[in-house]
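Hi everyone,

Forwarding the result from last night's run.
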Amino acid sequence: MSNPPNNALVPVNNINQAVIPFHRQRIFPPRVMVFFINTTDTIVNVRWLNSDNTYKDYGDLHPKSYRHVSTFYGHRWAFYDTKDGELLTTNYNSPDDEEEIYFAAKLPENYILGEESPKQNVLIFRRRTVETLTYSALKAVARRPDLMQLQLAPKIKEALISYYQERQAFLQQWRRDVAARQPRPA
């Protein structure tokens, strides 16, 4: 009995034995671990909008509960009130990195931009995100208190200062938003 050629399909006993040809492998965006936290008093339906623009149902989140999800950067998630089907908004802007936004499904046509929804109560928190070494280094340098005294090329220093100022402005706005959502003492 002769051996099959190298490129022939060979039956395997286990999926782990199968070798996927390099040209068929998919390159995925960075993996991100998140918690979806339902802070409402109603049941929330969690849905992922895939690349075919169809929803995949990830089940329901009961009031005051959470779900730990492994997803990828750029995936779109939507949260619906199970009572009336209303799309809930989220705190998708992270104070740490506004580039990693968890895109929600398109808002309803009757949504008025700028008006805050009373149902802005689904929180998303990132956990152990995968970052590139470049981004990690940029963040580490931009957070240094002696940033202005570092011996760097002018273009690099300008980029770091710009990043730091944008990050500080974003953090201030995020803190104001959090403070505005806190209940006021009577």
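Residues 154-181 form the longest helix (28 residues).

Cheers,
N.
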